């Protein structure tokens, strides 16, 4: 009988519960013994109560819930060799030879490293006599990653788990802000999350009908605020006195310094003589029940993760399961991590042009 463990790691993302549920139930169906690891890699390093068997009913009712019932963490201890050795000790002791990690690029990197180091940790633990009288020690660890992050900054999948829900929060917030903005004839600067990736800001601006969007992927020239001011002036001239400016938290000046919302507010207020307010959306973007899309995505990916483990047989598995053009797609974890750095640069240029063009400027002659 094979044993599988599952954990969620890094920032939580709506839909992680749906993914855990799918992994657990599919694995039980395929004859695995299943363990849940609480609080991400931190729990894996701690062992004990943090690693518990999961049955069919333990994941009942979690599908529609936000966050992750397993808990999550950004673990410092797992970054050390000693921490990872403890992690291996706990997995070996339970006979676990398959690990499913749901998280962002740092978390997926951790899974890759653990699988690579596995034999050397096992050898060291055996030498130190720390494995006791274990019957069979798994010679290798299969690891499967699932993309879980609202940022949509991972190579190898069109969408990560949680992105759609976050986007819905953003669009709803822009809608809500628009009614108060319109009443007061105000302009709002709305800051979205996304770390170094502009996906949420860009798609939020498209979905919410914003007048201007600033994303980290665009290298701004020194006159960038003139362009923004001009666009807003023109939009005001055609009879829309309230505007939305969306700025990604990772957006930068040409010299690399972050663009601050308060600074944008001041530029707009001073140059246009208008009333400006700032709303930083913050962690509401990560909260609440997952959208239908995220539940379905997470469920499909979770099932596919276990199927990949079953089908791999003796071949080592170090892959992320993603969705590309609505089909399950496997990418080596190493490739995901390496190429994710560049994903930001690959922002949808078409969507970007549309977002900037739909501000209405072309109607003003
Ligand atoms: O990666 C998800 C994310 O929400 C980013 O968009 C954001 O920069 C970061 O996590 C915030 O981290 P924390 O929840 O630790 O404040």
UniProtKB/TrEMBL annotation:
Compartmental location: Cytoplasm
Residue ranges constituting the Phosphofructokinase domain according to the UniProt record: 4-309
Family label: Belongs to the phosphofructokinase type A (PFKA) family.
Protein name, entry field: 6-phosphofructokinase
Native source organism of the sequence: Desulfosoma caldarium
Residues of the full protein shown: 2 to 366 of 741
């Amino acid at each position: 009988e094979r044993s599988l463990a599952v954990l969620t790691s890094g920032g939580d993302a709506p839909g992680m519960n749906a993914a855990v549920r799918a992994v657990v139930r599919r694995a039980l169906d395929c004859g695995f013994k299943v363990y849940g690891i609480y609080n991400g890699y931190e729990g894996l390093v701690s062992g004990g109560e943090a690693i518990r068997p999961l049955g069919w009913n333990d994941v009942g009712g979690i599908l529609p819930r936000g966050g992750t019932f397993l808990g999550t963490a950004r673990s410092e201890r797992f970054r050390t060799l000693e921490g990872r050795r403890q992690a291996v000790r706990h997995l070996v002791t339970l006979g676990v030879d398959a690990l499913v990690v749901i998280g962002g690029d740092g978390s997926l990197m951790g899974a890759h490293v653990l699988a690579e180091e596995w034999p050397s940790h096992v050898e060291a633990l055996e030498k130190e006599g720390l494995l006791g009288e274990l019957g069979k020690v798994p010679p290798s660890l299969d690891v499967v990653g699932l993309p879980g992050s609202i940022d949509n900054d991972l190579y190898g999948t069109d969408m990560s788990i949680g992105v759609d829900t976050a986007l819905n929060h953003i669009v709803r917030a822009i809608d809500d802000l628009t009614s108060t903005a319109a009443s007061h004839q105000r302009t709002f600067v709305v800051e979205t999350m996304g770390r170094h990736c502009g996906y949420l800001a860009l798609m939020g601006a498209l979905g919410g009908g914003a007048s201007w969007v600033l994303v980290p992927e665009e290298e701004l020239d020194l006159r960038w605020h003139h362009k923004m001011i001009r666009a807003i002036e023109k939009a005001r001239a055609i009879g829309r006195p309230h505007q939305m400016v969306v700025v990604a938290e990772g957006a930068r000046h040409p010299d690399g310094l972050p663009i601050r919302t308060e600074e944008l507010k001041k530029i707009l207020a001073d140059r246009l003589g208008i009333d400006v307010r700032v709303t930083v959306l913050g962690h509401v973007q990560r909260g609440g029940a997952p959208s239908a899309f995220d539940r379905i995505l997470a469920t499909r990916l979770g099932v596919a993760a276990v199927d990949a483990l079953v089908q791999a047989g003796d071949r080592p598995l170090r892959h992320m399961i993603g969705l590309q053009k609505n089909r399950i797609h496997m990418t080596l974890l190493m490739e995901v991590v390496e190429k994710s750095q560049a994903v930001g640069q690959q922002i949808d240029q078409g969507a970007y042009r549309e977002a900037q063009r739909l501000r209405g400027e072309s109607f003003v002659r």
